Amino acid sequence: MTLSFKVTLTPDDGTLLVTCPALPEVTSFGTSEDEALSHALDAIEEALAARIADEEAIPAGSRGSPAVRLPALTSLKVELYRALRSAGLTRAELQRRLGWNRESVDRLFRLDHKSRLEQIEAAFHALGREIDLRIRAA
Description:
Structural class: alpha+beta
Strand order of the largest sheet: 2-3-4
Distance between the termini: 14 Å
CATH architecture of the largest domain: 2-Layer Sandwich
Helix content: 40-55%
Number of domains: 2
CATH class of the largest domain: Alpha Beta
Largest sheet: 3 strands, antiparallel
Mean pLDDT: 95
Low-confidence stretches: none
């Protein structure tokens, strides 16, 4: 269920420049591959948060190597945002369906907020969706 985005690492004057083809606004760097990928995760989450705030489309994750895997909570929030958009609904309509206050609904879409799983499940349920969780070997 977790999303990942393929990135490109390019040597650049003693560092590694990181870009993400699916998210052209993502640019970061690091002095090692691990550091570059860590910074890339931060940059990807920032780009996704900006797209959600601006009500823009979010591309599907992309496969390949190297790739940055998003945390599970971030992936769930991105998928909730996509489900809301694909249903053609607004946050106000989701708020009405859930019977929650505006701030509680808005927090579901803030990637920096640690929403509770049961809240995200309730939001998916209000959209006629459910979470299908899968655990596999690393």
